[in-house]
């Protein structure tokens, strides 16, 4: 046994079997030769979805999920991405608006108890807010399930309806939905890209406020103030002038 292991280890790199997954094509290779590829129907469906944009003109799948997925799986993932993107866009906007209007009495803050970073606003809001919010969320989710999700069966659990387009809930009060298929796809791509950015942004907002315990714009203002002082210090050094000291509250930023 030990002899066989030594012989295997002595093989040149070109003779060893190696397995890799191409993140763009979705093909699994053994010794450089393609052996397992993404099913053609899955790859064709994924490539024609909105949201496939530069610099990833091909399907961006670094984890190789498509290699074992079906079209139904991809449709469900797209529904999840669209939904999370929309929630994240609302959340990112809510963070900024909430922090700027927390001192405005009509902004459900009659007694001034809501203050500070947005990550703590929910804990500060009392009775009379959560109940309507939970009802609104329940109604919205019930409507989404009724529109897009198939009735669970023993062989078709957690699946979308065949005639449902992921993300299309028929909600267009302003009549902005284009009738031209290409224009619609472009608009859907913009929504997806903004939703993806919002998911990253809201995660960064939460992390920043947890670490520094400051509001978003306050954080930006302090950063800007620090950069201005540091630039001024450089000028003062060049001119041989006394250097402006950095305030204590900016040293840790």
TrEMBL record:
It is found in: Plastid, Chloroplast thylakoid membrane. One of its GO terms (molecular function) is metal ion binding. Keywords: Chlorophyll, Chloroplast, Chromophore, Magnesium, Membrane, Metal-binding, Photosynthesis, Photosystem I, Photosystem II, Plastid, Stress response, Thylakoid, Transit peptide, Transmembrane, Transmembrane helix. InterPro entries: Chloro_AB-bd_pln (IPR001344), Chloroa_b-bind (IPR022796). Chlorophyll a binds at residues 81, 84, 190-191, 194, 196, 208. One of its GO terms (biological process) is nonphotochemical quenching. It holds the Pfam family Chloroa_b-bind. One of its GO terms (cellular component) is chloroplast thylakoid membrane. It is a multi-pass membrane protein. Chlorophyll b binds at residue 86. Its main location: plastid. The light-harvesting complex (LHC) functions as a light receptor, it captures and delivers excitation energy to photosystems with which it is closely associated. Belongs to the light-harvesting chlorophyll a/b-binding (LHC) protein family. PANTHER family: CHLOROPHYLL A/B BINDING PROTEIN. This is Chlorophyll a-b binding protein, chloroplastic. The lineage of its organism: Eukaryota, Viridiplantae, Chlorophyta, core chlorophytes, Chlorophyceae.
């Amino acid at each position: 046994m030990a002899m066989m292991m030594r012989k295997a280890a002595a093989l040149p790199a070109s003779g060893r079997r190696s397995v890799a997954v191409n993140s763009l094509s979705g093909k699994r290779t053994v010794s450089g030769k393609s052996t397992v590829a993404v099913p053609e129907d899955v790859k064709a469906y994924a490539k024609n979805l909105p949201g496939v944009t530069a610099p990833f003109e091909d399907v961006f799948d670094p984890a190789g999920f498509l290699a074992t997925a079906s079209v139904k799986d991809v449709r469900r993932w797209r529904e999840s991405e669209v939904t999370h993107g929309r929630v994240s866009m609302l959340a990112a906007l809510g963070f900024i608006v909430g922090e700027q209007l927390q001192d405005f009495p009509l902004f459900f803050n009659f007694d001034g108890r809501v203050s500070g970073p947005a990550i703590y606003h929910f804990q500060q809001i009392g009775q009379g807010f959560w109940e309507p919010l939970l009802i609104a969320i329940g109604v919205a989710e019930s409507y989404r399930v009724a529109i897009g999700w198939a009735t669970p069966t023993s062989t078709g659990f957690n699946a979308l309806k065949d005639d449902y387009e992921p993300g299309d809930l028929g909600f267009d009060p302003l009549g902005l939905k284009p009738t031209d298929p290409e224009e619609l796809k472009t608009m859907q791509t913009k929504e997806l890209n903004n939703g993806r950015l919002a998911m990253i942004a809201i995660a960064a907002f939460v992390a920043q406020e947890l670490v520094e315990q400051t509001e978003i714009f306050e954080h930006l203002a302090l950063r800007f103030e620090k950069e201005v002082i540091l630039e001024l210090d450089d000028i003062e050094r060049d001119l041989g002038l006394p250097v402006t000291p950095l305030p204590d509250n900016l040293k840790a930023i």
